[in-house]
Amino acid sequence: MAGEQQQPETELVLLDFWVSPFGQRCRIALAEKGLPYEYSEQDLLGAKSDLLLRSNPVHKKVPVLLHAGRPVCESLAILAYLDEAFPDAAGPALLPSAADPYARARARFWAAYSDRVYEAGTRLWKLKGGEARAKLQARAEIVEVLGNLDAELGEKEFFGGEVFGLVDVALVPFVPWLPSYERYGEFSVEETAPRLAAWARRCAERESVARSLHPPEKVDEFITLLKKVYGIE
Amino acid sequence: MSSQQQPAAPVKLITAFGSPFAHRVEVALTLKGVPYELVVEDLANKSELLLAHNPVHQSVPVLLHSGRAVCESLVIVEYVDEAFHQATAPRILPADPYHRATARFWADFIANKCLRPMWLSMWAEGEAQARFARETKESLGVLDAQLEGKRFFGGDALGFVDLAACTLARWLGVLEEVAGVRLMADGEYPALRRWAKEYVSDEVVRRSLPDRDELAAFFAANKERYRSRVREAVQQQ
Q1: What's the Rg (C-alpha) of chain B?
Q2: B231 to chain A, closest Cα gap in Å
Q3: Which residues of A touch B72 (CB under 8 A)?
Q4: Do domains A12-85 and A101-229 have the same CATH topology?
């Protein structure tokens, strides 16, 4: 849907960076909802564009969703916004209906929790060689987080039940990062969280996911690049 | 406290003394006219009730409603806003989707860029402490600018972002005294100071705001524990 002709008053632009899992959350949501938008790749490793700096002056980060020129920042706020601003979109809502506030609360809780995969995973590759204890702690944390997510998923097809919902969209972009985390952290997702591993394979079959995510090899290359940039190891 | 309608089932809030996170929920419940019962935890000795209902984080607050548990204070606040919505009760999050997104953005900013480094700056040492203090002060400056010409973050009435920022209104001042770390010097952040006064004087807020002296005594008693925990956390970064 990226690049389709849009009406200026409803125009959607996504400021993003190719490998950003937070940006991918938005790309997947937009695709699931059938909303056309313009994808705008930002150069984050070089000089940030004026548009990015103006749209997100506080964080200067992607993703930023511009809707008729107004910026929405923070990926989870963007996901909620897409549900709320486009109730008549072709695709289903990400959140359960307003008739079920408890289910909505659960979805918000677990969507926010999914960030922990990235936080703990990042510590695994960012810590320098000598910080063995901190690495062990990061490993313990990611294993615990994946275990909790596995338990929450249970025997359901998706976190949203039969619906590919908020939690699924929030979590799935971290899947291509998992093989790198497994290597740095010396653990196995298949062993730690087998149901989650199966869920990841199911999600990969969805068009919105397949089109938005990059293969693990590309993500791993990017991590290696970042390690050089940060002067790690 | 009166309410137009009794909710279908009683609401319990698992809390602990001095928790600004639980305070957010108490204010939300009061704003919506929802009667509730407090279950006060001793966090050094967590109850089965707490561990059963919040196995993931094992923290307060936890809202128990119709036998179901809702965890994470701002998730609970949104839940309360939705589950107990009535035409006569104020909205905690605004109705307009763009304003809601803006409110969520600022709540996230406050949590990650302000409250987290603020807590660390109170108990950390050396270069790390200086770094956290700098980051917090920068964020306080951003918030101060946001409040320009506004009574509350939410506008004329208290809302979601004010609840997210409540720590800054009462807890920050007490922490500064107990930890001996001054983040808001005299004359700095005038809009934020004015907002803090508005916040703590609010009729609804006052009902669940902990007493300043009791809070100070509580933090003082736990100083060493905070210092050692923060030392650990800094080493893991």
Answers
A1: 18
A2: 12
A3: 108-109, 112
A4: no
**With 50 as the cut, is the pLDDT of residue B103 above it?**
yes
Instruction: Tell me if B124 sits within 8 A of B230, measured CB to CB.
Output: yes
Q: How much is the average pLDDT of A67-85?
A: 97
Could A109 and B142 be called an inter-chain contact, meaning their C-beta atoms sit closer than 8 Å? no
Shortest distance between the Cα of A200 and any Cα of chain B, in A, equals 22
- Answer for the pair A94, A29: CB distance below 8 angstroms, yes or no: yes
Q: Where are the alpha helices (DSSP H) in chain B?
A: 20-31, 48-53, 73-83, 97-109, 116-123, 126-146, 160-164, 166-169, 171-179, 190-201, 203-206, 212-235
In whole angstroms, what is the distance from residue B194 CA to residue B196 CA?
5
**Which position has the token pair 């409250």?**
B115
A79-90: average pLDDT: 97
User: Would you state the pLDDT for residue B208?
Assistant: 96
CATH topology of domain A12-85: Glutaredoxin (3.40.30)
**Where are the domains positioned within chain A?**
12-85, 101-229
Q: Which token pair is B206?
A: 């006052």
Contact flag A70-B98 (C-beta cutoff 8 Å)? yes
Q: Please answer yes or no on whether B105 and A72 come within 8 Å at the CB atom.
A: yes
CA-only gyration radius of chain A, Å: 18
CATH 1.10.760.10, domain A101-229, yes or no: no
Convert the pLDDT of each residue in B148-180 to its tens digit: 999 999 899 999 999 999 999 999 999 999 999
- Give mean pLDDT, residues B8-35: 93
The half-sphere exposure of A134 on its side-chain side, counting CA atoms within 13 A, is 19
pLDDT of residue B5: 55
Chain A residues inside the 8 Å CB shell of B111 = none
Instruction: Please report, as a single letter, which amino acid is at residue B144.
Output: D
